[in-house]
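Checklist before submission:
- one chain only
- standard amino acids only
- sequence pasted in full

Submission:
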Amino acid sequence: MDELVLVFSGFSGVGKSTLINHLLSELGDDASLTVSCTTRAPREGEHDGVDYHFISHDKFDQLVRCGEFLEHVQYCGNRYGTLKSAVNDVLRNKKICILDLEFEGAYSVLHGNAFDFPCVGILILPPSLRSLEKRLRARHSETEESLKLRLTEAFQPKRIAKYHHVIVNRNLESAKVELLQIVKSYIAK
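Returned file contents:
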């Protein structure tokens, strides 16, 4: 397979980043994660250009006006977007492109006919709403308002149906194996 875009979504605290990092480790130089832009402030330990490109609202607006984003959304009062150039750079280098997107952005990429080749949606879910709340509270990165919003939006069947694959992260090691099997099935095509 020459070109493949993997679109990951999942709520904070479901193990999505851990699974993506595991996949990147397994695939080595054959894959690359794009770095999205956001207008939110960096959290403790995050670095510009590594975790996100942290930009102003004015810069974000400029990029939107110039058509620079593959997708962009507003979520929990902040804006997020994936630069077309970032995706094209990965694909130009013959690597699997991995996108970590909010639900709306993932939907627009998966169903917007942006590519003439496989674009595979992978949703990572926690085993239950209770476990999601516990994971989010343990991270100490959510306000009560954003926590309630995330919990309200979880497990909506119409959202889940939009993905090609759903991994329920009951056990991290099993989820890693399942993810690798899914990706290898596309690489083998």
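Reviewer check: The beta strands are 5-10, 31-33, 37-38, 53-54, 69-75, 78-83, 96-100, 119-125, 165-168.
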